[in-house]
Structure formats: structure tokens, C-alpha cells
Design goal:
The protein is globular, with a radius of gyration of 22 Å. The protein is about 45% helix and about 5% strand. A hairpin with a 3-residue loop joins strand 2 and strand 3. It has a 4-stranded antiparallel sheet with strand order 3-2-1-4. The protein has a 3-stranded antiparallel sheet with strand order 5-6-7, with helices on one face. The chain contains 20 helices and 7 strands.
Length: about 450
């Protein structure tokens, strides 16, 4: 926090903003963040370490120039339609009241809340870290982005206990799943404290929490590793997070990321990641479309490229269905790919379907596209990214899930995913993308403009 204030004071320009890294980025921690506005994080994949590698502490920006759009009245009309569409929408009301903490109840009831480092699908004490407990026992204030009716952001202050007075924006669902579920912490004030440590030191809570959970599970299974930590040890988590950020002692190994740490400590059979990135809080043994999402995502186990979990949770497609899953996934991934080119908030994904997306593009750029034309553009973007990864060494054998997802079921044996099921979906996905059997584009025209 002090760093951002100091940088802005040095610039002395009213309204200026700063994007900064912390000690984790300076020390090239593989999951270091870029932070701005105190609590907003560009969190995944270690972009903070990229800045740190260039000896770049902060970027300050300011300006007053407004963006011009092709059809301002059409854009205003679309905004009015979205506001009306969201007025009585249950999802919108959930964001307004709880933010993403509402998902703690939903995902536990759906039995897909990763718990005890991916050993089960629900946390017995989930109610103690729910959105209702947050509203009842903490000071919660809505802090929406300018003019946003979702108002999902919550500024939360701890009212009592050892962390009394601590204020953060959050905690968000993914932070609650990693520290609450994976690490079995049933106190919100402690999770808020961990969130604050990661924000101040500049680390992604998802990767940091997964690494802490891996250490706990290794100890629970009697593995010989240089860090001793048991499930539910809040004091130990706080110390370990700081040690990771500063690369102190054995935690310096964890700071190299889950792929390197699990290899060095002989935990590759326990570690949960795809292409070096840990999954989000949706277990693919329960939501099998998420298995396809994690396996094929170009940046590792990412849930945001298609958000297929929403389709499965809403019953748009059966969560256990394998045939036709890739077709639904591609439709969602294509829409979100175009959606993401506009740098739009992902929480509007359910309100901005294909018709709204087409209208938005026309209003902003003046260009009119059919859905089929946008499909081609989206496929070109996804394919170009695939080619970039291939150039850097990625191959079909990387489009897999961690071994434990195949070997260990959850929810008392009710849910699992097999190698054959994933292979079917991946092969179907390749075919729908127009790629060959090894997952590469068949023609150069697929990525040409």
C-alpha cells in the first residue's frame, strides 16, 4: 500500500493511477501480481514477476481524453436494455447483495467446492465462511465500479478479534475456496487476513493458497518435505505466505511455482495443476466440462476462457454428459473470446449473449458482424494462441488433467472423471476447432486476417 501512495505522491498529478508490484514481484515469485487501487490484482500467471524481471516497480498513468464510439445512441440503447434485463435477474441480485461470496453456498450445495486439497467436493463448515456470515458479522460496504449496476465489489472491515480494523476489498470466491476449502480454514477473519497478506506483498491468492494446501496434504500423507503444516493452522499459513513472498528458507522452493516445487519435493503425484497453473474452485470430477476447460486452456487450468461451469450448474447441459459437451464449450468459448477482446467485466457474460455482443460491437466500432462471422474470428484468435504455445513447446500431451483427478473420486465415490472421457472431449474439441489429431491447425488460412 505504501508503495502505491508514494509513487502517486511523487507524480503529483490529480487523478493519476498506479499499477505496482510488491516484494513477491521484486523477487520473481512465479505467481506475483500487479496491483492497483490497493485491492485490485492482475493475479494469475505471474505477470508481477515479468515486471520484476525488468526492474520495473510501477507504471503510473493519467489522462482526460474520452473514447469515441461509432454510434453513441445505439450504445446508450444497449445499456438501457442491459439494465432492464438485469433488473430482476437472480444472478444480478446475488452479486448486488453478496458479491462472489454467494458462490460458497451454491458450489457446496452442488458438491463441487474443492476441499482438503482436492480430496472432497464440499466443506463441512462452509456456512461459517459464507456470504451470510460475512454480512452478519463484518462491516460490508458496496464499492461498485463507476456506473455498474452489478455492484459486486465489497469493501469489508473486520469488526473484532486480532485483526480488528483490517479492511480489504473482498474476499472473493476463489480466495474463499483456496484458504477455506483447500486449507480447511473456517474463519472469515483469518481468510481476510491471508487475502491482505497476498495483496500487500503482491501474490495471487489462488496459486498461493493451492501451494499451502499442497504442503498440508503432503504432511497429512506422511511425505517428507521441509515444511510442517497441518490443515486448519491459520498461524502457520500466515507465516508461510510471507516466507513465499520473500523467498525465505524452504518456501523459496514454493515461490518457483507448483510445477517446480512438486518436482523438487517429489510431490508430482499429489500436485493439482494443468500446464503449471492451479485450477479454480470448480472440481472437474463433478463438472466434467471443466475438465475440458482446464485441459485445453492455453494458460493452464483457467475457468474464465469459457465459464462452462455456468452451463453445467444451470442445467443447460448435463454435467456428466460427454457427447456434445465440446460443442457447447466451443460456443461459450467463442462468445467469451470475442467478449474478452472488448476488455469487458466477465460478470456480464450472462447478460451479454450473442445478440447483445453483436450490437455492442456495432455500436462501438461501426462494424456489423453475423454470429457466424464472429465464430470465424474467435476461432482464429484461439488458434493463433494455440500456435504461439506450440512454438514455445506445448503439445497435445499437455492437454491433460493431473493424475489424482483420474485416480481419486470425490463425494463418497459419487463423482469421477476418466482418461477416456477427457480424451473424447478433447478430440471432439480439436475437430470442432478444425485442428488435426495432434491439436494443430490444418491450414495457415485459419489464422490469417
Amino acid at each position: 500500500y505504501d508503495t502505491e501512495d508514494a509513487v502517486l505522491a511523487a507524480v503529483n498529478v490529480p487523478g493519476a493511477q498506479a499499477a505496482v508490484i510488491g516484494p513477491a514481484g521484486e523477487r520473481l515469485v512465479r505467481f506475483a501480481c500487479i496491483e492497483n487501487n490497493y485491492w485490485r490484482s492482475a493475479g494469475r500467471t505471474g505477470v508481477g514477476a515479468v515486471m520484476g524481471s525488468k526492474k520495473l516497480k510501477a507504471v503510473v498513468f493519467h489522462g482526460k481524453q474520452k473514447v469515441e464510439v461509432a454510434h453513441p445512441e445505439l450504445l446508450k440503447e444497449l445499456v438501457r436494455e442491459l439494465v432492464a434485463k438485469g433488473k430482476n435477474n437472480p444472478g444480478v441480485k446475488g452479486y448486488q447483495k453478496y458479491g462472489t461470496t454467494a458462490m460458497v453456498a451454491g458450489l457446496n450445495n452442488a458438491k463441487t467446492f474443492p476441499t482438503r486439497y482436492w480430496s472432497d467436493g464440499s466443506f463441512k463448515k462452509w456456512e461459517s465462511i459464507s456470504g451470510d456470515v460475512l454480512l452478519e458479522n463484518f462491516q460490508v460496504k458496496n464499492t461498485p465500479c463507476p456506473k455498474c449496476f452489478l455492484a459486486c465489489a465489497k469493501k469489508v472491515t473486520v469488526k473484532e478479534g486480532p485483526h480488528q480494523g483490517l479492511t480489504i476489498e473482498g474476499p472473493e470466491y476463489e480466495t474463499l475456496y483456496v484458504f477455506g476449502g483447500l486449507c480447511c480454514i473456517d474463519r472469515l477473519d483469518k481468510i481476510i487476513y491471508f487475502n491482505d497478506i497476498c495483496d500487500r506483498l503482491g501474490m495471487d491468492t489462488m496459486s498461493a493458497g493451492n501451494l499451502v494446501g499442497l504442503v498440508m496434504e503432503a504432511n497429512a500423507r506422511g511425505r517428507e518435505i521441509p515444511i510442517k503444516l497441518t490443515y486448519g493452522d491459520a498461524e502457520g499459513i500466515g507465516k508461510l505466505l510471507e516466507d513465499m513472498a520473500y523467498c525465505r528458507g524452504p518456501a523459496a522452493t514454493l515461490a518457483q511455482g507448483i510445477k517446480e516445487a512438486s518436482r523438487e519435493w517429489g510431490l508430482e503425484d499429489l500436485a493439482i495443476h494443468c500446464k503449471g497453473l492451479e485450477p479454480s474452485g470448480y472440481d472437474p470430477r463433478r463438472l466434467k466440462g471443466m475438465g475440458l476447460a482446464y485441459a485445453t486452456s492455453t494458460r493452464g487450468a483457467c475457468h474464465l476462457r469459457a465459464t462452462i461451469y455456468k452451463a453445467e450448474l444451470a442445467g443447460i447441459i448435463d454435467r456428466n454428459q460427454i457427447e456434445g459437451k465440446a460443442e457447447v464449450f466451443v460456443d461459450w468459448e467463442n462468445r467469451l473470446t470475442i467478449f474478452n477482446t472488448g476488455i469487458l467485466c466477465v460478470f456480464f457474460r450472462d447478460l451479454i449473449q450473442w445478440p447483445e455482443l453483436q450490437k455492442l460491437i456495432k455500436a462501438v466500432t461501426g462494424w456489423k458482424f453475423t454470429k457466424e462471422e464472429l465464430y470465424v474470428i474467435a476461432n482464429r484468435i484461439v488458434t493463433a494462441t494455440r500456435i504461439f504455445n506450440a512454438r514455445e513447446g506445448s503439445k497435445k500431451s499437455d492437454d491433460i488433467l493431473p493424475p489424482r483427478f483420474y485416480q481419486e473420486s470425490i463425494n463418497d465415490g459419487e463423482d469421477c472423471i476418466t482418461v477416456e472421457e477427457l480424451k473424447y472431449m478433447v478430440d471432439d474439441y480439436y475437430s470442432l476447432r478444425g485442428w488435426d489429431d495432434d491439436g494443430f491447425p490444418k491450414t495457415a488460412e485459419m489464422v490469417s486476417s
